[in-house]
Amino acid sequence: MKVLVIEDEKELADSIGAYLSGENYRCEFAASFPEAIDKIFGYDYDCILLDLMLPGGDGIRLLEEIKANNKQEGVIIISARNSVDDKIKGLHLGADDYLAKPFHLPELAARIYSVIRRKHFGNTNTIRQHELSIDLLSRTLTVNDQEVILTRKEFDLLLFFISNKNRVVSKSALAEHLSGEMADMFDNYDFVYAHIKNLKKKLTEAGYGNYLKTLYGSGYKWDV
């Protein structure tokens, strides 16, 4: 899952990134208002952590831009502003959560998980689809009651497909999901093909219902 950290305090941003990486999140960073605008409208994220006091502009304006453009990312405000009025304003404008600084990183991670679970997975810790069962907390998959061992990227791919079920997912969207902004620098999608091939092989060997379809020229679709 991809998280955009909009935070101008480098030490705090680095701490957040290091902790969330250990929790299996891919983090990208923006340290100013203009940089945040470029990231928000150049890429898709599962959750945005939004500081309010940024060089070049107010984070509240960013939140208004996100909502005005119907961006679907979850937004958690992280701010030293801790008045009730600030929290109410942020939540009324469309933030999913508000966490005042200073905060504990495990609590931040739990709130991110909660936002993503609610937006993508029907607010449940266990996704069940026919013969598949996915435990989001333990990051484990069983097919026909047998555990299937996936790599981190294969598990992330599976969640990405399921969170976009019955939609066509382009190769470029998959590349961005797996590698973030680095995907712009790749000459081809060979690494995407390799991860999908491995994921599909493991699912097929476990006896899943062949939900992952290849749409030549378009991308892939988790068809259920």
Account of the protein in words:
This protein is of the alpha/beta class and 224 residues long. It is built from eight helices and 14 strands. The strands form four sheets. A five-stranded parallel beta sheet has the order 2-1-3-6-7, with helices on both faces. The longest helix is centred in the last third of the chain and has 17 residues. InterPro entries: CheY-like_superfamily, OmpR/PhoB-type_DNA-bd, Sig_transdc_resp-reg_receiver, WalR-like, WH-like_DNA-bd_sf. This is Response regulator transcription factor.
Labels describing this entry:
single chain; 224 residues; alpha/beta; five-stranded parallel beta sheet; four-stranded antiparallel beta sheet; 8 helices; 14 strands; 24% strand
Low-confidence stretches: none
The spatial strand order of the largest sheet comes to 2-1-3-6-7
What gross morphology would you assign?
globular
Distance between the termini: 22 Å
How many distinct helices? 8
Average residue-wise pLDDT: 93
How many β strands by DSSP?
14
Largest beta sheet, briefly? 5 strands, parallel
Q: Beta-sheet strand percentage?
A: 15-25%
What is the H/E string? EHEHEEEHEHEHEEEEHEHHEE
Structural class: alpha/beta
Radius of gyration over all CA atoms, rounded: 18 Å
Helical content (DSSP H or I, runs of 4+): 40-55%
Domain OmpR/PhoB-type: 124-224
DNA-binding region: 124-224
GO biological process, one term: regulation of DNA-templated transcription
Pfam families: Response_reg, Trans_reg_C
Summarize this structure briefly.
With 224 residues, the protein is α/β, with parallel strands linked by helices. It has eight helices and 14 strands.
